[in-house]
Amino acid sequence: MKNRLLWPVLALVALLVLNVVVTPSFFSLRLQDGHLYGSLIDILRNGAPTLLIALGMTLVIATRGIDLSVGAVAAIAGAVTCTYIASGGDAWTGMGLALVLCGVLGLWNGFLVSVLGIQPIIATLVLMTAGRGIAMLITEGQIVTVDSPTFREVGAGFVVLPIAILISLAVLGLVALVTRRTALGLLIESVGVNPSASRLAGVRARTIIWTVYVFAALCAAVAGLMISSNVSAADANNAGLWIEMDAILAVVIGGTSLAGGRYSLTGTLLGALIIQTLTTTVYTIGIAPEITLVFKAVVVIAVCLMQAPVRIRVRGVRGKQGVPA
Amino acid sequence: MTEPVVDMRGISVEFPGVKALQEVDFRLFPGEVHALMGENGAGKSTLIKALTGVHPLAAGQVSYAGESVSFTAPAEAQAAGISTVYQEVNLCGNLTVAENILLGREPRKFGRIDGKRMRARAAELLARIGLHIDPGSVLESHPIAVQQLVAIARAVAVDARVLVLDEPTSSLDADEVAELFRIIRVLRDEGVAVLFVTHFLEQVYEISDRITVLRNGQLVAEHSTAALSRIDLVSAMLGREMGLLEEIERRSGTPGQAFLVAEGVGRKGSVAPFDLEVRSGEVVGLAGLLGSGRTEVARLLFGADKADSGRILVDGKPLKLTGPRAAIEAGVAFSSEDRKAEGIVADLSVRDNLILAMQAARGWARPVPRKLADELVAKYIELLDIRPADPDRAVGNLSGGNQQKVLLARWLVTEPKLLILDEPTRGIDVGAKAQIQKVVADLAAEGMAVLFISAELEEVVRVSDRVVVMRDRHKVAELDGDVGVDDVMALIAGGGDHGLDKDVEKAVVS
Question: A208 and A183 in contact (C-beta within 8 Å)?
Fold first, then answer.
């Protein structure tokens, strides 16, 4: 476990060091009007939605699944809330509505995967594409802007730290507590490693798979609220665009295998931080926008390669044993 | 006799920690159909893969057409004229018959595939094996049996001198098998050497000229089919390890009440309706060859597969078996024969594997307390002598025998009233085998009902109070008390040349 996290930690440290070298004031924090500001805080705040979605994704991936629809679900959450508020509704009710609807969408995904047995990548692709359409229908194709101080708090508010950070860390703590202090984590891993053996041992594999998709959708909903609250607007087309890819990447960088089974929440946290730090680094060291994506790609490939050698070595050893004596 | 086309001598193949083949000799002559027989894990597939270059040899030598060869990939073997057709159809259903037959060696014209010549060549090859279908038709539009024959046409397209058929008949019905055999005979008469793997004794006696029997990775016998009686064949396949293990103490006590009663339980295409009773405190053995329905019986009783007829009573009350959970709640536990796919959760620790069934029964919200888990793990590691005695080790890193002990422990901690063990001792060493047998006897002595399935008759007879015999997906007999291996073997071989003893006949219940 510890070994698996070594490379992500080193990658994160390297990125931070690079930033300090370029911007010596990178680590400095200042307190203004009871709010904490600084580059590190920015990274955490901007990375909060990705972290949230990646947490849901971690559990889905641990069951051998994947959820491509989270970005679209996030857009739907923002669309529902903003449209409701814009039509004169209360912000809390609006957010509640969004959570309920997204919970239903999670049930849909879980139904396709666990009851109908559709491959997760296909099952969630349905909502990935259809979800944006649903969001468009809700906003009637417009960017809905709202002026609600309550709603604005979710993405842009502060209680010393930005509220978005607090929410993400609270969810992280909650997931860690619930999966590791109850048997849920064990059962999720067991289903991910060997679904048939788990079923024969009496594990309710179907219920567990269903649960993780609902949880992933709820995480996506909260992340969607953050994204939309931060700009006080719902953009059905662009809110949470490609965030599912960042989330999957965060999970993989964190050392959780796409083949399911053992998962690491700490790894996912590190993965999400690496991705966000990378994005920030691109701005602070002044990389030209046109090569931003290439730079990101290079770093991601590097991190993945660093995690890979273990497997290459294992295969090498097996190959040697296979040579006839 | 002519020179053998394939001559394998002293073949050994090793996998990490397992000797899959030990110094096996095997000969295949041109123009013969040679049946390779043996139970699961006997080494049949390994021998084929050693021949075709899938597995590297640890020792031994392969001669093909008089020359020493060492293929490093199946493609090399195929190019040399050794073609293999596997159990599952390994073709592309969306392509045409002609494309499948000539895939990878399509006739070309100016670098492009020449469709006309391809269809003509395919038609020629199909005609050779007497299969008259349109080469331009899509493969999927034909039944599985025809697809299987197309696979054979593909295999002989390279002028194969050796044709390996790995269980080609398992998905075919009687007419289709007859068609396949007609084609095999055509090829045999052309001088092709056919290596044929099957579990169906009838078919062996119908088609094969010679038989080689493997058991536990070793060569047991090579005979001409005419000279080997069915009973000797079964005996060679199942083996006799007399005196290898200590005699298990027979309990004197009488079994208790019937715990589980199955009345007419069956499943179409899986096992014919059967009656079965298992009483508390007795071990019921289930004997039969692979594919006889012995595993299917166990799966139906546990709800792993759904029965479509009959009913099951537990403690006298009808049990609605909706799935494994319902069975577990009724006190039934089942350890599958497929340890890897349906038993262990390889990446998880010994501790997690051991408490999995208990945890599943408690639900996720009530975790097994760490202290209790540690106590249970410590207890069963000692009781069953699980090695290495490290609860945190991933169970996938344990040897087969120790994995099996962990699985046994997984169920024992749930304190089941009926324990169904499907081949709990397959592929594990003699020491672990004896330990598991002893545990089974002790459990029954303490009042547990046990249904014990094993391919090894010696073992079944040794641990069981009663033996139920399965043949061709039917329950054929139930033998009480002190049955001998020979009695059971006669029943398994069935309809063979050695009639049943009078005593055994009396014991036949159904």
Answer: no
Task: Look up residue A228 and give its two tokens.
Answer: 């939309």
| pLDDT at residue A307 greater than cutoff 70 | no
Does B344 contact A197 at a Cβ distance shorter than 8 Å? yes
Q: What is the pLDDT of residue A317?
A: 39
Measured distance CA(B328)–CA(B320) in Å, rounded:
12
Question: Is A7 within a domain?
Answer: no
Say whether B360 and A262 touch across the interface (CB within 8 A): no
Q: Is the pLDDT of residue B244 over 70?
A: no
Domain membership flag for residue A15? no
- Residue A313 domain flag: no
Domain assignment present for residue A3? The answer is: no
Distance CA B414, CA B230 (A): 43
pTM: 0.74
Both tokens of B261, joined, read 């009663």
Q: What angle do CA B486, B491, B496 make, to 5 degrees?
A: 100
A302 is in which domain, residue-wise? 37-307
Average pLDDT over residues B26-52: 88
The answer to whether the CB atoms of B347 and A196 lie below 8 A apart is no
List residues of B whose CB lies inside 8 A of any A CB: 16, 56-59, 70, 302, 304, 323-325, 328, 334, 336, 341-348, 352, 356-357, 359-368, 410
Q: Is B468 helix (H, G, I), strand (E, B) or coil?
A: strand
- The total number of residues shown for chain B amounts to 510
CATH number at residue A288: 1.10.3470
Q: What was the pLDDT predicted at B254?
A: 66
Q: Among A183, A204, A261, whose Cβ lies nearest the Cβ of B367? A: A183
Tens digit of each residue's pLDDT (9 = 90 or more) over A155-180: 888 888 999 999 999 999 999 999 99
Going by C-alpha positions, the residue among A81, A73, A75 that lies closest to residue A98 is A81
Structurally, chain A folds into a number of domains equal to 1
**Contact indicator for A176, A51 with CB cutoff of 8 Å:** no
Residue B248 has pLDDT above 70, yes or no: no
Percent share of chain B, pLDDT over 90: 38
- Tens of pLDDT along B454-503? 887 878 888 898 999 998 889 999 988 677 888 888 888 875 433 334 33
Q: Which two tokens stand for residue B385?
A: 């002598």
Alpha-carbon span B77 to B70, nearest angstrom = 9
Read off the tokens for B347: 């990446």
Name which of B56, B334, B363 is nearest A200 (Cβ-Cβ). Answer: B334
For chain A, give the percent of residues with pLDDT over 90.
68
User: What was the pLDDT predicted at B506?
Assistant: 37
Mean pLDDT of chain A: 89
Cis peptide bond upstream of A24, omega within 30: no
Cβ pair A189:B347 closer than 8 A? yes
**Which of B347, B361, B365 is closest, CB to CB, to A182?**
B365
Asked if B489 contacts B238 with a C-beta cutoff of 8 angstroms, the reply is yes
A186: closest chain B residue by CA:
B352
Q: Which residues are B215's β-sheet partners?
A: B218
Identify the pLDDT of residue A315. 40
